[in-house]
Specification:
alpha+beta; 6 helices; elongated
Length: 178
């Protein structure tokens, strides 16, 4: 029974190698928590596929984006086309680049994304969400900066459905006295 309880000194002796070994043994989605004296340290694990890419799914409105990132020259491909061709408006390209700017990794990763559903604005938001999540999978130490910018939170705002007895979602038909 005394062996089961760990003292504060035992917790202090946890080395970085032990944390990494414990993190790699854990499930990929889990974070490993190491408790110390005052606060606990959370260690996130890098998640890569067999080709050395990080994958994530991004969502915005009705759009869903599947995003893969890998180290490269900063080339962004969306549905087999260049970013400048697919997202013709500069504001949409700026939305996608925001995650890299916050992380300080502009031009360091190649992005391949497939997007379906919604309009161009929703698709650009979905790609940004996917890129942000993929960046945290590739470099877990970037997570606090990206999370502080609000790019890891899925924007839940969607179009409200039309109700019966109404012209649109909330607009009533024009009132006629006679």
């Amino acid at each position: 029974m005394a062996e089961d309880k760990k003292t504060l000194e035992d917790l202090k002796e946890v080395t970085a190698e032990a944390v990494v070994a414990k993190a790699t043994a854990a499930a990929p989605e889990e974070a490993v928590v190491v408790e110390g004296e005052e606060n606990s340290a959370i260690v996130y694990v890098q998640k890569l596929d067999a080709q050395g890419r990080a994958y994530a799914t991004g969502k915005r409105k009705d759009a869903v984006a599947r995003v893969w990132i890998k180290p490269g020259k900063g080339k962004i491909t969306v549905n087999g086309r260049e970013e400048a061709i697919y997202f013709a408006r500069p504001t949409l390209r700026m939305v996608i680049a925001q995650a890299f700017e916050v992380a300080g990794r502009v031009g360091q990763y190649d992005v391949v994304a497939t997007v379906a559903g919604g309009g161009l604005s929703g698709q650009a938001g979905a790609v940004r969400h996917g890129v942000s999540k993929a960046l945290t999978n590739f470099e877990p130490e970037l997570r606090p900066a990206i999370k502080a910018a609000g790019f890891l939170t899925r924007d839940a705002r969607v179009v409200e459905r039309k109700k019966y007895g109404k012209a649109k979602a909330r607009r009533s038909f024009q009132f006629s006295k006679r």
